[in-house]
Amino acid sequence: MRAAGGSWMVSALVFAVLAACAAPAWAGPAEGAEAVAALPDAPKAQNAPPAPPNPCDVRNAGASMAASAAIQAAAAARGDATAVNPKVVDTVVCVPHLPIINWYARFLTGPQVKALTPLEKAHLAARNLVDPFNLLTIFGEAGIAVAADSHSPYGPGMAGFGRDAGVSFTQDMTGEFVGTFLIPSIVHQDPHYHRMPRASIKRRIAHAIYQVAWTQGDNGKGMLNYADLVGFAIDDEVSNLYVPDRETDAAATASRYGIGLATAPVDNFITEFLPDVASHIHVQIVVIQRIINQVAKPDTGGAQ
After folding, report:
1. Could you read off the pLDDT of 83-106 as tens digits, one per residue?
2. What percent of the chain has pLDDT over 90?
3. Which regions in the chain score pLDDT beneath 70?
4. Which among 145, 181, 177 has a CA at the least distance from the CA of 162?
5. Do 146 and 211 lie in a common domain?
6. Quick one: 187 and 65 in the same domain?
7. Alpha carbons 239 and 167: distance in angstroms, whole number
């Protein structure tokens, strides 16, 4: 009786194990799908394909290996003990090239159609002032003036050159501060000159001329060019305070103001038409444009 009871218990245990193993097969389709959906997803491979090696780095590595092997072979031929522990000689035969930059593209497209904040206008004025071509023009004009007339109010030699360059730099600084930052920030004027590359020649000439008096505001609408009409007068009055041997009466001041407004379109003509030539000649034409732009600026300063 005891043996029969033990056999019954063993049989019941085996049947329970088999039932537990076969439970998924008894479940219906819906229950099986839910069970599969509850299982976590298999992890995805995270190994990204390696980036292709830089051709320049490959050439440099090959050159370094060749140079090191040559030095090791020469040392071994001489019986030098250093051939046992050779040193790697870094050899550079290729320098990665910088991306090609179209230096005159910004002259072709003109300024971005975006209202500048007062801080951005201040940055523009500072950048125009310390522009290398602007500084080169100031120093070049000062050197030519002192060399041509050693008896000028600035005096001869390097002292005269320094005074002349200092006065010109101060005039430019005043013009940029007033004409590019101060007045445009107060009246919300765009200090840029906006080209019309797709208009007719006559239309573009007229546009360059009347931009001296009528320009564009920060909102994209037309407005008086206060930076020129008012800025030229302020610049001239400030220059009367420190420019040596200068007539400061009303007639002389009015004459300089009129000459400044009359010559202001010259800079606009250069900005309007020279990029058309640059796109057909050579990128170096931009250097010429930048220098001519600085030379064409009236003595009274101002921004275009």
Report:
1. 556 566 566 555 555 444 444 444
2. 41
3. 1-56, 58, 60, 63-64, 66-71, 73-114, 278-304
4. 145
5. yes
6. no
7. 9
Q: 274 with 205, same domain?
A: yes
Q: Which residues, 6+ apart, have CB-to-CB distance to 155 below 8 Å?
A: 163
Question: Is residue 89 domain-shared with residue 109, that is, in the same domain?
Answer: no
Closest C-alpha among 247, 245, 220, 225 to residue 236:
247
Q: How many domains does the chain have?
A: 2
| Rounded distance between C-alpha atoms, residue 155 and residue 139, angstroms | 15
Q: Which of 71, 95, 119 is the last residue of a domain?
A: 95
pLDDT of residue 91: 60
For residue 6, tell me if it sits in a domain. no
Question: Which among 267, 272, 275 has a CA at the least distance from the CA of 292?
Answer: 267
C-alpha 163/C-alpha 261 separation (Å) is 26
Range list of H helices, the chain: 2-21, 23-26, 29-38, 55-77, 105-109, 118-129, 132-148, 157-176, 183-187, 201-210, 226-229, 231-239, 250-278, 285-296
Whether 22 is in a domain gets the answer: no
Provide the terminal-to-terminal Cα distance of the chain, rounded to the nearest Å: 116
Q: Are residues 84 and 228 in the same domain?
A: no
Other beta carbons less than 10 A from residue 78's beta carbon: 10
> What CA–CA distance (Å, rounded) separates 135 from 291?
10
Q: Which of 180, 193, 192 shows the shortest CA–CA distance to 122?
A: 180
- Determine how many CB atoms are found less than 10 A away from the CB of residue 128: 21
Q: What is the CB neighbour count within 10 angstroms for residue 216?
A: 19
Q: What is the dihedral of CA 266, 267, 273, 278, to 10 degrees?
A: 130
CB 84 within 8 A of CB 66: no
Determine contact, residues 163/275, Cβ cutoff 8 Å: no
Residue 74 structural domain: 55-95
The answer to the question of residue 175 being in a domain is: yes
